Amino acid sequence: MAINISSGPYAAGAAIVEVTYGLSPEAVIVAPVGRVDEATWEKFGAHLSRGVEEAASQSRPTMIIDLSGIEYMSSRGLRALTVAKQEGVGAGVSVRLAAPNDIMREILAISRYDRLFAVDETVPFAEGGGA
After folding, report:
1. Which helix (H) or strand (E) is 105 found in, with range?
2. Domain containing 27 — which CATH number?
3. Which H, E and C letters describe 13-42, residue by residue?
4. Contact 80/44 with Cβ under 8 angstroms?
5. Is 61 a domain residue?
6. What distance in Å separates the CA atoms of residue 59 and residue 41, rounded to the nearest whole number?
7. Would you say residue 97 lies in a domain?
8. pTM
9. Mean pLDDT, 10 residues at a time, over the chain (131 residues)?
10. How many structural domains is the chain composed of?
11. Distance in angstroms (rounded) separating the CA atoms of residues 58 and 35
């Protein structure tokens, strides 16, 4: 299921992010695609909150955020990750990041979020992903 969470002007065109959700026996997988910036971060955060809620209600111990489709993430997007992690702690759900592309790997390293979150090279528990 793809959900268009925002559209609005951005210097290079439209800032659009789509989010898909997946389920495995172990996790809810949230897979955003696009830019997480000033125009999209709030709705991105709302979808992460939904992922935490889904994981808790479906008795899945983990929510995985698949970063492979993210073209850019601003500091507000990073804040949304922090809030999701805090919500996960409150709900008993571990929040992990997975499959960062080169851009996201650099953003995570510069911001030190690669130390705040567990970061997997592939999407764990997904068909064809590593564990």
Report:
1. helix 102-111
2. 3.30.750.24
3. EECCEEEEEEECCCEEEEEEEEEECCCCHH
4. yes
5. yes
6. 27
7. yes
8. 0.84
9. 38 62 93 93 95 96 96 96 98 98 96 97 68 40
10. 1
11. 29
